[in-house]
Design a protein that fits this description.
The protein is α+β, with helices and mostly antiparallel strands and 168 residues long. 42% of the residues lie in helices and 23% in strands. It has 5 helices and 5 strands; from the N terminus they run ααβαββααββ. Strands 1-2-3-5-4 form a 5-stranded mixed β-sheet, covered by helices on one side. β2 and β3 form a beta hairpin.
Amino acid sequence: YFLNIIEIASKKILLNNAELAKLNNIKIFSLKGLISNKIILSQEMNIDTKIEAAETIDYINMHEIDLNRIIGIIFDNAIEEASRCLNEKFIEFAIIKKENSVMILIQNSIHGELPSLSSMYMDGFSTKGENRGLGLIILKEILSKYKNALRETKISENRFLQIIEILN
């Protein structure tokens, strides 16, 4: 029983703590709390979740509520899509401080074929049923308020990547 249950759970807790410890460089506490919450949620859903935050992030040139909303939307979409995968379930999060900007990257595994990028950003579009599909529209609206914010989305055969760059 110990080897099958307790030891496996202990290893999982250590893995969670090791990944969460990588958030120490994020000094924006609301963002750090949001990301840690999303990481714990994804790991509880057996999604392999990796984090990279090598540099100290103490300022991002965007209102904190808007920043947390866009990260929350992207992370929620990543968790939902990765959880649907049958084989490899993963999310990779990175926040990178550059000379004149901060880049936020969230990449996740995808389940099957995704629709075109243009259709994903249409009002009300969802692959998950009615009364859904507002997240990416809200993301687009928030980012449109910031001339210093750039978004890039890439889809490859088994990966979905969102890159947000916020210029200082």
